[in-house]
Amino acid sequence: MGFGGSVLLSLVLVLVVLQGYGLISSVDGYDPMDPNGNVTIKWDVMKANQDGSFDIRIFIFNYQLFRHIDAPGWKLSWDWQGKEVIWNMVGAEATEQGDCSKFKADNLPHCCLKKPVIVDLLPGAPYNKQSFNCCKGGVLSSLTQDPTKYASMFEMHIGNSPSGQQQKGDMQIPQNFSIGLPGYTCSAPFKVPPSRFQDGSRRFIQALKTWNVTCTYSQFIARTAPTCCVSLSAFYNETIVPCATCSCGCQGLSGEQCVEQGKTPSLLQLPHSDRDIVPDTVMCTKHMCPIRVHWHVKVSYKEYWRVKITVTNLNYAKNYSHWSLVAQHPNLQSLVEVFSFNYMPLNQYGPINDSGVFYGIQYYNDMLLQSGENGNVQTEILLRKDPGVFTFREGWVFPRKISFNGDECVMPPPDEFPRLPNKAHLHASVRQYTSTVLLMFSIILLIL
Ligand SMILES: *[C@@H]1O[C@H](CO)[C@@H](O)[C@H](O)[C@H]1NC(C)=O
Ligand SMILES: *[C@@H]1O[C@H](CO)[C@@H](O)[C@H](O)[C@H]1NC(C)=O
Ligand SMILES: *[C@@H]1O[C@H](CO)[C@@H](O)[C@H](O)[C@H]1NC(C)=O
Ligand SMILES: *[C@@H]1O[C@H](CO)[C@@H](O)[C@H](O)[C@H]1NC(C)=O
Ligand SMILES: *[C@@H]1O[C@H](CO)[C@@H](O)[C@H](O)[C@H]1NC(C)=O
Ligand SMILES: *[C@@H]1O[C@H](CO)[C@@H](O)[C@H](O)[C@H]1NC(C)=O
């Protein structure tokens, strides 16, 4: 008996070691799934005019692998160092003109503010206001999802206020850049080698001067509470492990508002303008998350296994366009097929290939609709059982980490994961185990 016990004990130990959950995750700016992710603002001085004015070209590049910039889009601002004003702008506009009373001209500047706030034009802007790569309402795709829509560009003509000192051919780069989105902080501008632009097929032109500003995202700075949680189930256990209570907020706590299931939210709670950041209006649940991701271990075949992933929108105030879901699981290196989403592996660590990004198929499920009957997207995925690694034990089949739109989802505690029934080896349905257990028994018999 003692002998059987020690075999069992060592088996448990080995499994505990194999299990290796990465439970501690950082909440600071660094995202291990996208360590170089950033939004870069590039400021190109294209022309310095005789009258001390400048022609500027500004680009915004979203270099993040799976975090996109959603509606209502970027809102770029900066502080002028001197008395600069914006005379003209193409491809974007300043939200306020400000006080231009110092100018005695028929033609007033576009913006006289010390801190201009610039927004992209909406699609369908007048042709003479458009620039190449403009007019997407400030929405930028991630590099993974649509490499053709990850940049914005606009041009402006800047000069000096009459009371300002005339600049002598030298551009003073403004300070305190911001892209006006929660969670992003921008570096100070740094001078980089001047940009080159193709002008015709064989000739390049060059900016006079170029500065870059790098903005990085931190979930911790963005919000105080998570916005997404994970629930789990498996074919071998009837229990559906729900999202952890109070994952994103606690129902009933003062200040927490929600909409009872089956009721429609009052119009007051819903968005009014395209320009506003919409507060979440969530369905009342124990977890209070606007997004729930369910991971269901559906079928076990001889050499493969199948998982169904369902993403449910419990937010009445938002349709999530171009959503993305990052999953980390050691078996993703042997992913065979994804049936209804797109997938791209994120091989950041070379040999460790355990994470990837799922995203919607254009015009099919790239829009996750607001809470309600159609407020979900789902797919099944097929994975090959890596010999010697794959196991149904110890919750190995469940993800280590899930994030939605780049924000990490709250997982249920591992000790609550659906467990294999204790007498698993008696049920032929779990074939993998039947064979290992038989093998163990024969070894024990041999030794005895
Ligand atoms: C920003 O992202 C680009 C593209 O991935 C990368 O080349 C660059 O080094 C990043 N910048 C910083 C400051 O991380
Ligand atoms: C940038 O912001 C800091 C802190 O708010 C402020 O002290 C500084 O004057 C700003 N820079 C400019 C050029 O306005
Ligand atoms: C500045 O930004 C541009 C555009 O994103 C990029 O190509 C360039 O490598 C950046 N330069 C530096 C030094 O980061
Ligand atoms: C979401 O999209 C549906 C269908 O396009 C639309 O009827 C609804 O008003 C949208 N909801 C929000 C909150 O934008
Ligand atoms: C990583 O896994 C994916 C499947 O998820 C596979 O297509 C890719 O080739 C793997 N890459 C490496 C470097 O192993
Ligand atoms: C199913 O999993 C739950 C949660 O881990 C566990 O409490 C329960 O005992 C399992 N059911 C069976 C039949 O083993």
Automatic annotation (TrEMBL):
First and last residue of the signal peptide: 1-29
Keywords: Glycoprotein, Signal
GO biological process: cellulose microfibril organization; plant-type cell wall cellulose biosynthetic process
Keyword Cell membrane: no
Lineage top rank: taxon: Eukaryota
One GO cellular component, as annotated: plasma membrane
Domain (COBRA C-terminal): residue spans on this chain: 227-418
Record-stated family: Belongs to the COBRA family.
Protein name: COBRA-like protein
Lineage: Eukaryota, Viridiplantae, Streptophyta, Embryophyta, Tracheophyta
